[in-house]
Amino acid sequence: MDWSERSLRIAAFRDVYAVTRRAEEAEERIRDLHLSHGTGQEGHCLLLVGPPGAGKSVALRRYAARHPDVEEQLRTHRRILGIEVPPGCTLRSLARTMLAALGDVAPSRANQVEATKRVHTLLKACGVELVMMDEAHRLIHTDTDRIAYDAADYIVGLLNTNLCPIVLAGQPHIERVVTTNAQLGRRSVGEVYIGAYEWEDQDQRNEFRLVLNALEQALRLPFPFRLGSAETALRIHHFSRGLLGPAVLLIEEAFKLALDRSLGALSHPLFAEVVDRLRIGDGRRLVNPFVVEALAPAPAAGRDEAVRPRVEEESARRQRRRRQARSEGGHAD
Hints:
Shape: globular
CATH superfamily of the largest domain: P-loop containing nucleotide triphosphate hydrolases
Keywords: Plasmid
Largest sheet: 5 strands, parallel
InterPro entries: AAA+_ATPase, ExeA_AAA_ATPase_DNA-bind, P-loop_NTPase, TniB
Domain AAA+ ATPase: 42-198
Order of helices and strands: HHEHEEEHHEEEHEHHEHHHHH
Helix content: 40-55%
Oligomer: single chain
Number of domains: 2
Distance between the termini: 56 Å
Structural class: alpha/beta
Organism: Azospirillum argentinense
CATH topology of the largest domain: Rossmann fold
Strand content: 5-15%
Region (Disordered): 300-333
């Protein structure tokens, strides 16, 4: 297989979208928020939360794809504006990110006041009906665990203009941004949680297996492997902790090896090799679910598991700096 064909096969696999109940619920709530645009109601926001790899960003991209830009005679009608909140978010960096997404020719040259005015002007001029902010947990700075209050107030300001509603998508600790800002909390219409699949829950287990079957059909390999079989699905679930992101990555990497080696099907030994490749650091000490005969179900990834270690690590780092500063008779940074 030549390189171009290989690339096309992989790209086709990445374009697969498996419809799930949780994704449909998320899209329904986003659609309800979207439909509030132009009704004269005050602007509202919706939280879309879940651990990394649960499928939040996929749901946003899916919804945006269903509402593409419309080329009109005098403008491009941007129905959906999707952005990724920048790391270390500040009011200025958030406004500049929005300006760039709106097609501003020189977003980096705008000062804070100019950027804010131009965002409002372009949102109206482009006819934006809904803003979707992914990675919105970056409104909380990882190194200090503090909320970027100026950026949060800026979001409130956008809602106050009644130009368009806003979806804030990110890890669950973004809830703090809303619960600690009375104005933003008043504008919230709730949250949608997209979490990991629980193996012990029969309905969730069955849906997880159906997703795996849909992914296998997209591989178009000569021989079926039955990714959704109870035995294989359990091992994929064990590796991914029930998160679709890691599960899809595992399958894609195994698919690449199968293409490179001209294999007609996937296999447990192939998956075992991929697991060893993907794991780093302490993860390499975990059991490889594809090399053991008997395997107990692993607990699904929790709401805050990806967040808590980083926050605790940064907290411990700050405490070490303070102790060192006191011992040296100086001040911590």
